[in-house]
Amino acid sequence: MSLPVPSSDALAASHALQHLIAAEIESNAGAISFARYMELALYAPGLGYYSGGSAKLGKDGDFTTAPELSPLFGAALAQVAAAIIAQSAPNILEFGAGTGKLAFDILTELAAAGVTVERYSIVELSGELRGRQQEKLRGFPQVEWLDAMPASFDGVVFGNEVLDAMPVQLVIKNPQGWQELQVTVSDGRFQYLEAPASAELLAQVARQIPEHELLPVGYVTELHGIACGFMATLARMMGKGAAFLFDYGFPAHEYYFDQRATGTLMCHYRHHAHPDPFYYPGLQDITAHVDFTAMALAAQEAGADVLGYLNQSGFLLGAGIGELLLRTDPADAVAYLPQARAMQKLVSPAEMGELFKVLAVGKGVELPDAIVAQDRTHRL
Asked: Which of 42, 243, 341, 358 lies in the 20 to 30 Å Cα band around 298?
């Protein structure tokens, strides 16, 4: 692959992580699950992609998220947050807050609207990102950082591109049925290894993949057990309020198409996307598309209501992003055009508007009518 060459320090960190992963593989009879490999590659203390010190976001990082594109994204979310706070409590919880830009824009918008936020809690696993957040949000004394999900919570929860970074297990269909794709070391390189799937994994295949028995031999896909567990814990944590999860993915009946026979696993390195999760572990993001049907069912079975499922375009337009754009005078081309272009990227079906979806779950609250009008829950 023609990708930018890492610095010597970055290479040294990646090699240290590779040795750590290889040692775990050796101590585990020569193979580990892909979920464990992905967990170490992303979260190994001090070496993993999210726990290391390299920049993740922006022009110097590996990818750009919606909040980085425009303050209109956070301002639109603030409109929905205000509606939920009015029905629950003046608290916001954000998972994986990136550079802190989304929190900054939400808090700025709510303060301008006279909406009080008593606590804005951030659960962040990346030390590098936490440091950037603390600098960005130093003007908001109600912001606090947590190392884990609280036991209970009333208010509004946001998670932007959180589910896609949760470790997944890989399975492949062979002539005998479904097998697990594990990770081993061969000739000094990480490689996949087919292994018998456990009864638990086979049950997850049957539960998650519609008509799995009809998929062709050689079909590879992801199982989202960790993300499902997160959704169940989130549902049990929620008191009165709503959680909004933004991510790219599909409902189950669209996820497991024949055309996706190699799965949806994708890596991001210096604004290049490629499919090799074994390329310089620790220096690249590894993600998989989200199975939103599985996420909704996990939350529902743990006691939450599925409040809505819609594409990002419908959510943002329902939240009033068009009206927010018009706060900037269209006659002022220098100020208006960059914001208009950013909004177009956020809502256009050809850009992020259709690829990104929003799943809303909660208890004891209702979504604004303009959001409900865009609902696609029937497609889950």
From this structure: 42
Residue 1 is assigned to a structural domain of this protein: no
Residue-by-residue DSSP string for 337-373: HHHHHHHHHHH-TTTHHHHEEEEEEEES----HHHHT
pLDDT digits (tens, 9 = 90+) for 224-249: 999 999 999 999 999 999 999 999 99
As for how many domains the chain has, the answer is 1
The DSSP-derived string for 44-96 is STTTSTTTSSS--BSTTSSB--HHHH-HHHHHHHHHHHHHHHTTS-SEEEEES
30, part of any domain = yes
Pairing of strands 91-95, 153-160: parallel
Rg value, the chain, Cα:
21
Indicate whether 2 belongs to any domain. Answer: no
Convert the pLDDT of each residue in 18-36 to its tens digit: 999 999 999 999 999 999 9
* Non-local CB neighbours of 296 within 8 Å, separated by 6+ positions: 231, 306, 309, 359, 361, 377, 380
Rounded Cα distance, 89 and 115, in Å: 11
User: Which domain range does residue 203 map to?
Assistant: 8-380
Instruction: Kindly give, in sequence order, each residue whose CB lies less than 8 Å from that of residue 110, ignoring residues fewer than 6 positions away.
Output: 78, 81, 82, 116, 117
Distance CA 121, CA 99 (A): 14
